[in-house]
Protein: Class I SAM-dependent methyltransferase
Organism: Lentzea tibetensis
Amino acid sequence: MRLANVFQRITGGGGDVRFSAYDGSSAGPDDAPVHIEVRTPEALSYLASAPGELGLARAYVTGNLEIIGDAHGALAQLSEFSLREIPWAERLGLLSFLGRTRINNRVSPPPQETRLHGLRHSKERDRQAIAHHYDVSNQFYEWILGPSMAYTCAVYPTLESTLEEAQFAKHDLVARKLGLREGMRLLDVGCGWGGMVMHAAREYGVRAIGVTLSRNQAEWAQKAIIDAGLSELAEVRHLDYRDVRETGFDAISSIGLTEHIGKAKLPAYFRSLYAKVKPGGRLLNHCITRPDNLQPARTGGFIDRYVFPDGELVGPGHIVSLMHDTGFEVRHEENLREHYALTLAAWCRNLESHWDEAVREVGEARARVWRLYLAASRLGFDRNNIQLHQVLGVRLDGVKSHMPLRPEWLG
């Protein structure tokens, strides 16, 4: 069996993908919009040593396998990347072939794979995880995220809205759900580059504090706050949310932090936020979730080792139950899954338009990690393998919620 045919069968590649290999073999239509090239024996060695997404990622990140064309389109064709659809007789033959390849061409994981140390979701290990993903290059993130520097799901008013318009709409939706008004105090945990903090200060006159474990983010955000003339109202600290000493906030926003907390730590996380918001104050929790409560929380090998170490995703019902059991009265919930697919598509386009600069800035391997990660994440939202939920809760003031009779933010 020729190599291109082997790879085609292993990946379950559809009819719109062309495969070629270093032995001169090919499979699939010549005019396919996506071309996957197996450049070296090491590509199959990676697959043999780690079948599934991790082996594919290792081969692609190291350049031993190339995707020519749209990465999202390619992954959509390879979404069933496994051996389970191949008849047993052929499967045994393929495993034997790949086993010989591995023996003859032993490969080590690429250096871009991370291995963290210490107790899972301890402060020190969380710091390592955040540094791995965020303390890369602010310039690199600017190319991908655009001027808003918002690294969370945007909210698209229309399909024609720009990424910047959609990120403004997201921040404003959060502000309106929280009922922000001039003179209020907001705590934004996991604040990133300060987008929500600056929006609350600039648009609502709110005194806003943001905290992030990323030193790069904090330094960038503080400069942006000064440049925007918002220093009297806005502040971003390089700090663990667990170390915030102030309490009595009128509102708390958590936009894209919950994914880093860990399922076992979520009860303590919500208790901490409950203690920091005053009676009548609101919490808006915005995070990626599983589509249900039945799947394991830990992410797959590629995301865990290359992108978000120690990231964990739970179902939306789990989030709602924990907020409720902590003492928050849950008042509103919505799924923005399609909006995140649109957001990721925009980030993919930004990366491609700055590809050469990105490679010079962070190296080709890391740029390849991001190309694969953004495309795979977009596909995950397309296919409803992951979702994005906003859950709004209020800490009751006795029995009073101080909420409007109907959601004002839906107007």
